[in-house]
Amino acid sequence: MAITLRESISIGLSDFWSRKIRSLITIFGIILGTMSVIVVLALVNGANQDTLKWMMERGGLAKISIYRNWQYDNPNNLPSSFNLKEINLIKSLIPEALYFNPSIDARAEMSYQKNKYYSRIYGVMPDFSKVEEWGAEAGRFIAKFDVDNSNDVICIGTTIRDELFGNKNPIGQYITVQGRRLKVIGVMKHRFLENNGSFGNNNGLSYMNRRCYVPISTMISKGTGSDEIDYLVIKAATVAEAPQLKRKLEAILLNLRHGEPIFRLESAQEEAENMKKDAAKFQVIFFLISAISLFVGGIVIMNIMLATVQERTREIGIRMAIGARQIDVFIQFIVQTVIITTIGGILGIVIELSLLDVLGKYLEFNLVASQQMVGIALFVSAGVGLLFGIFPAVRASKLDPVEALRHE
Question: How far is CA 322 from CA 1, 69, 317, in A?
Fold first, then answer.
């Protein structure tokens, strides 16, 4: 008498519930293995999302950054920075760029009355706020007329405001920077990005709150005294246009430095694509490492199922004697093994998803689950049952009915 798949599933479930303790011990390794798969995939997924979120907070994926290529030896000692003439030339050659901001930075001491603070001060153009998608929460940001007239004005971050002014309104006040009095015209919006263990403190953008900004012309004429510009950021009109704009900029810069790669260009959009590729590689590596525990659990299940075949030899003989085929016995034991590992996988997924937030807070890291990783974990746990259930199922189906009936 042939056994249907439905009957095989029913028998498998009945056997599982009739031997609860042994079944739970059997699937313990599968539960732990599934939990580890969920954790490592959530870890990589969380890191990926944090990095992408950080990039979006820093102006989005249409940004192209240009700075010195420190990996190039520069044998001909060509200039590794731009001057204002070159900056204006580059800007004229890329009219399709949406925003354009060169910058110069230096470390400086600033003071207000008796309060002092050390910070990085940046000479920028008005497009800085557009490139970074970051403006002033009080007062205003640097305008074109500030740059044209080299005005002695400054925009400060919220940390500098708190350190120098406390609860006092800083707008219109003067602070002294390296002996020069600058008028505070704006306070930048407070930047915050929840760290989750990725950046070193609880705010991944806290360093931006410790910066201040002056017109680039003021920085050159009254600050550094030099128009050597080390850093240039350009923003394409759209993310899709960024790669083409980057290629055009590479050609321009190579032409400026006689074909030598003095400068390095980074596209936020390409970085995001590379990040996704790297994340996929890490997912595979970590998944294979965590899957080892699932395979160990599979070996345990195989041994227990072999013991089960031994215990049920007479039962198998009776089934064969009344008409069960070898394929029916094979399917019955395969289905039973898959049921055990699938139940273990489901329990592992449910337990880990319920503990994911707690574990993330303990590790101080962002753990992000997705439907895809849940499906992968469930598929692998069922696959382990299928793989390690083959040998016990084959042994059961190959039993001689006469010898099986004699078994005590």
Answer: 6, 80, 9
Structure tokens at 317: 């003989």
Q: Using one digit for the tens of pLDDT, what is the confidence trace for 63-75?
A: 999 989 998 888 8
Given a cut of 60, whether residue 179 has pLDDT beyond it is yes
Please tell me the total number of residues recorded for the chain in this structure: 408
Which of 72-86, 269-283, 366-380 has maximum average pLDDT? 72-86
Both structure tokens of 49: 């999302």
Report residue 124: phi and psi, to 5°.
-135, 175
